[in-house]
TrEMBL record:
Residue intervals of the HTH araC/xylS-type domain: 179-284
Protein name: HTH araC/xylS-type domain-containing protein
Domain of life of the source: Eukaryota
Keyword hit for Transcription: yes
InterPro entries assigned to the protein according to its UniProt record, in alphabetical order: Homeodomain-like_sf, HTH_AraC, Tscrpt_reg_AraC-type_HTH
Regions that span the bilayer: none
Keyword Transcription: yes
Keywords noted in UniProt: DNA-binding, Transcription, Transcription regulation
Natural source organism: Halteria grandinella
Amino acid sequence: MLGLPKPLHPLISLFDNTSKKIDYSNITDLRTSAFYKISYKSNLTGQIKYGQHHYDFDEGGLFFVSPNQITSNSDNNGDHSGYTLLIHPDFLLSYPLANKIKQYGFFSYSVDEALHLSDKERDTVISIFKNIDEELKSRIDDFSQDVMISLIETLLNYSNRFYKRQFITRKQVNNDLLQKMEKILEKAFEDENLAVQGIPTVQDLSNSLHLSPSYLSDMLRSLTGQNAQQHIQNKIIEKSKEKLSTSDLSISEIAYELGFEYSQSFSRLFKAKTGQSPVEFKARFNQKTSFNFAKMQPSTILFQTQPTLLFTKWQFPDQNCFITLQQWKNQLNIYCILAI
């Protein structure tokens, strides 16, 4: 159907269309595949949409598709030369790569988030494709699969490195996306309908930013060391601390206002992130311990009235004892009367 020869191996194939163009005209527009797909397309000129911006490129790109992912025939339009590697998951069985390959987030990126290669990076990738092609065409022996697995893993490791480089070179744009994401989260948690709409999800954020969830998380990790889900959780903790320290709402009411269906889920997250329960955190701002002035010497009282030792729970939230200036004045007046 594609005008290609019979594959050399039932579980792994490499198509080289640098010399022979693949005919996609007989393929349905939307389709899925049971294979991991890694494609390099040269002469891929045009624009790529990144967030809400478009960027010109003409250096070609590397694309990744995971098994059973829906792809479009429009992705293959144009006169592109390059290589396409198809790997069935069964080919990786009994090798650590069978699990490790699932950790490469770029298999879930969209076409608009392709890896754009420099000339040097392109040469590295093409040399690996050629080595895989030579290995497939060679006589099969006891080491053939080991060698091909090693080459595939090398290709993936280089791709991971090159994507990190791409994140770095687009750092300014990524920082703009980070700030926009923070504004989206802030608006969501200030919304009066949060209790009804529920906590924003990674999918919600990625839709708003026009990025795939995997790309968003990897981009954030390159900037902050945390993925998208962790950013959402951080915002939950920030808002919950505000409510716990400034309102008389119960833990259940606060959990509901923050979009939690069950207060236990909120309490578990808060404890995991802060090391203390919401009840313990709230108690720090409600507890006041009175002093026994009857046992204090006059010199001690005078010393304790120095301005530097008069503090409030807002200035020093880690203190266990708080006393207001008016309480000091009242106690001092009583002590002075008794002394006279």
